Every structure is written in structure tokens, then in C-alpha cells.
Amino acid sequence: MADPSRAARRHPALDLDEPGGRDWPAGFLETLALAIDGLGVVAVDDGAPGRWRIFFESPPAREAARAALGASLAGSVVISPVDVEDEGWTTRVQEDLRAVRVERLLVAPPWDLPPAAAGTPSETLVVVIEPSMGFGTGHHQSTRLCLRLLQMTEVAGRRAIDVGTGSGVLAIAARRLGAREVIAFDVDPDAVASARANVALNGLDGIEVVDGDVAVLGTAPAEVVLANLTMFLLRQRRAAVAGLVAPGGALIASGFTLDQVGLVLEAFPGFDVEQRIEEDDWVGLVLRSGVRS
Ligand code: SAH
């Protein structure tokens, strides 16, 4: 399903290459995380070996960052601006996806729902997700880590916020687990559309899906905040994310790997680590906000 309006979409980015094509020196991740703080970064991709691709919110932000990074990382990287064509990566063939169980929760595409009568333990909570433009089918470790942590956290009767809802999977799961009300938002309009469609598919009320960036969203803090973003995004948006967590509330965070945990924790000094779980290299945390934070 090619969408012609997406064809022209291009994203301003900078490629940072290791000058000799070697592996990055130890500690470079920390240096990079600190160097890009506050520069209007929307995503960081380490897809190619020896290359970090950093996406910016606008071409001017990219230009400002190019100068700033040129100064702060001088000599250790080669910096080149690129305009990255939108690949519509989330539309990659997903028809083969099967349901994924995470303890009580079963995340299932419409074509792999459990039969109503047989085989499904009665305590199973089904989250139907039509794979589409929104990330989150339950097939990524970070989504599964959040689904596990959600079941280790007091959710019933609480208000929840899902930052970067993608397909809506975590918002729907939170509501299935008894959250009183869920506000889900995403900066990507395609994700918002897919989250809304999935909320309808599950026949749920009590979930509001909002189009917007965590940095500008005005909503009252909640007792449970889900943020399956990346280490870089959690750092870039730390003030906004922390501000959404009510005093004494839980921040369920994932989207980062073992080597990045320190950089995430450093961004949330007012929080205590209540849970830490791992799957492969991926980490999920429940961070508990201090009552006075
Ligand atoms: N919650 C889903 C999807 C996580 S992917 C899951 O756990 O599987 C992360 C999502 O965050 C993407 O949909 C992306 O568009 C969104 N996102 C990225 N930056 C954001 C920002 N600044 N504010 C809100 N959402 C953001």
C-alpha cells in the first residue's frame, strides 16, 4: 500500500563516521549522548557499522548541530549532512506475524486471534494489533519488556500516559490491565492513526490518542508513565518525560541496551530503580519518582 504523500517526505540528518572506518573508541557513546543533548534530535540510528545517523527536527536544527558537533567532536568523526528518504519501514511485510504471549497478555494480529472457546487460559488478556505504520507488534524486545513491567506494576485504577505509543500496544495493554484512563501520544501522525484504529479494534473506551511531542504535550501527571523510546530520546526529552510522572509514580522505560543504562539513569536523578529486567541486550526499567520530585 504505497502512500504517495509519503514519497516526498525527507528527514534532515547528519551522518557521523569513524574517520578510519574502525569501531568507535570506548566511551564514544557517552561523548555522543552528551554532545547532542539539547540540539533538537528526534532519532538516532546506529544501523551501519562505524556510522551514527542523527535525525533532527528541522534543517536549521541540523545546521546548528553540525556546527556544534564539529566543534565538540572535532577530529574524532567525519560529519556529513544527508536528507533521508522516508522508507515507510513499518510497512515492511508483516503478514507473517503471529501472536506473542507476554505472561497474561497476548498481543495478536487479527488473523492469529485465539479461538474463543478452546485453549486460551481464561485470565489471558488479548491485545489486538493490526500491524501497520505504528511500531509495536510485540515482536521487539523493548515492547515485551514494557509489557512485562506493566504486569509487575500497580496499574488497576490508575491513570496512565503512554509516551510514543506507536501502534498503541502499551496503552491498550494498560487499559486491559485495569488502568482507569490512558492518554497515549505520538509525534508521528501515522502512528497516531494506527493507535486509534487499534483502540477501536479492541473495542475499548478510556484511551485518548493525541498527536504531539512529549516536549509540548500539556496533560496532568500520571501514576504510570510508559516510555519505550530510545536512550537518546529519553535523554533529549528527560524534563518533559519526568514531568509527566506524578510524585510517587512509576516510569516504565525501555528502548535501550545494556551499555546505555547508565546514560538513561543519569537523566532521571529524582527516581529510584524499582525493577530492572532484560531480554537479549535490551533493558527495561521501572523508575519510581521520589515523592517530592
Ligand atoms: N510504545 C510502542 C512504540 C514504541 S516506538 C511500543 O512499545 O512498542 C517509539 C515511538 O515513539 C514511535 O512511534 C515514535 O514516533 C514515537 N516518538 C518519537 N519521538 C517522540 C516524541 N518526541 N514525542 C512523542 N512520541 C515520540
Question: Can you walk through the features of this model?
Answer:
The protein has helices spanning 4-7, 28-36, 59-72, 141-151, 169-176, 189-201, 231-236, 238-243, 261-267, and strands at residues 10-17, 41-45, 51-56, 78-85, 100-102, 105-108, 125-128, 159-163, 181-186, 207-211, 222-228, 245-257, 271-279, 282-289. It has 293 residues and is of the alpha/beta class. It has a 7-stranded mixed β-sheet. S-adenosyl-L-homocysteine is lined by residues 42, 134-136, 143, 146, 163-166, 169-170, 185-188, 191, 213-214, 228-229, 233, 237.
Question: How many extended strands?
Answer: 14
Bound molecules: S-adenosyl-L-homocysteine
Q: Structural class of the secondary structure composition? A: alpha/beta
Based on CA inertia axes, which overall geometry fits? globular
> How many helices?
9
From N to C, what is the helix and strand string? HEHEEHEEEEHEHEHEEHHEHEE
Unreliable parts = 1-7, 89-93
